[in-house]
């Protein structure tokens, strides 16, 4: 069955919201997609007719097995395209999201499988988010926020919490990306900011908010 771009955007938005709340409200979807609640209600009725979700007015919405399968397929396409854009076309990681938002709707399974093979079956996208395989399985992230580290602990950057282009651009300017090795040199009690050391670079200071949006694994 083929789905419109709008339908796929709704399915992906519901899946994303379900990561923190299993039952998604119409108002949450309206805010996420920046559209009117009445339009959301109409779309949910259409997606229910296509047997992709459970929906009852005033009780919220939840993807069923078919809806989740479609959502993970869209997420797979999006993250594979992001990997391709960064690794093969050398586009900066803060500029690929919008492009991948368009490419994710190219639904040819043969194309996506060939892309996956061409890229060497990557497990995570350029921002550290896991890429679902062709069956919808993906590895669980096993990391903590940089802000949780103690002084003198060493770690490697494995993910980014907030993928807003402004934050990614800031990290790029500070030469912090996936795979960057760093060490906590000092924690400032005044504002909970961190002083960190990256090899062959001067010491830099990160705000508490920024440190909480950088995920790392201990080395």
- Mean pLDDT equals 93
Q: Mind telling me the CATH class of one domain? A: Mainly Beta
| Number of DSSP-assigned strands | 8
Shape: globular
Describe it:
The protein is an alpha+beta fold and 219 residues long. The model has no long low-confidence stretch (mean pLDDT 93). The strands form two sheets. The chain has a six-stranded antiparallel β-sheet. The protein has a two-stranded antiparallel sheet with strand order 1-2. The chain has helices at residues 5-18, 26-33, 37-49, 65-87, 97-103, 109-118, 165-173, 208-212; strands at 53-56, 60-63, 144-145, 154-160, 181-187, 194-198, 204-206, 214-218. α1 crosses α4 (65-87) and α2 crosses α3. Among the domains are: 5-63, Arc Repressor Mutant, subunit A (Orthogonal Bundle); 144-218, SH3 type barrels (Roll), CATH 2.30.30.90.
